[in-house]
Amino acid sequence: MVEPAGYSGTPLPTKLGVRDGHVVLLDRLPDDLDLDLPPGATVVRRLRAGLDLTVTFHTHRASLEARLPALFEHTVTNGMVWACWPKQAAVKRFGIDSDLDDNVVRGVGLELGWVDVKVAAISEVWSGQKFVRRLKDR
């Protein structure tokens, strides 16, 4: 199978950094999206303490700004948060109402003191940016 432009052959759970034993929050996961996470990960749908990895989906800056502080607070010291937004091509193609792009998402995370370390295609519709704590804060 030929991958669409911009997609690596790396399985999504590997790209996201999901490992056996991780507690993974799927926050605001769109109904039509399956991340196909490995069975060794514990998937939760509600915010709780001790999150190793969160994948959160947003279409508007206000929603992202309101949600990220709580997600960061509930993430373990060496954990990560993926903030996802609709790709510009999807916004145009599907008429999605969004005021987010990678620069806006990065700015929101940086304002909260975390750093962005990776951007990845989550699906044909969604991009994601990975945030982690600064090394000095771990």
What's the CATH class, please? Alpha Beta
**What distance lies between the first and last C-alpha atoms, to the nearest angstrom?**
41 Å
User: How helix-rich are the residues, as a percent range?
Assistant: 25-40%
Number of domains: 1
Structure explained in plain terms:
With 138 residues, the protein is α/β, with parallel strands linked by helices. It has one domain: 3-Layer(aba) Sandwich (Rossmann fold). The protein is built from 4 helices and 6 strands; from the N terminus they run H-E-E-E-H-E-H-H-E-E. Strands 2-1-3-4-6-5 form a 6-stranded mixed β-sheet. The longest helix is centred in the middle third of the chain and has 13 residues, at 61-73. It starts with 11 loop residues before the first helix and ends in a 5-residue tail after the last strand. The model is unreliable at 1-5 (pLDDT under 50).
Summarize the structure.
25% of the residues lie in helices and 31% in strands. The chain is of the alpha/beta class and 138 residues long. Strand 5 and strand 6 form a beta hairpin.
SSE blueprint:
Layout: H1 12-16, E1 23-27, E2 42-44, E3 51-57, H2 61-73, E4 75-86, H3 88-94, H4 102-111, E5 114-121, E6 126-133
Parallel strand pairs: 1-2, 1-3, 3-4
Antiparallel strand pairs: 4-6, 5-6
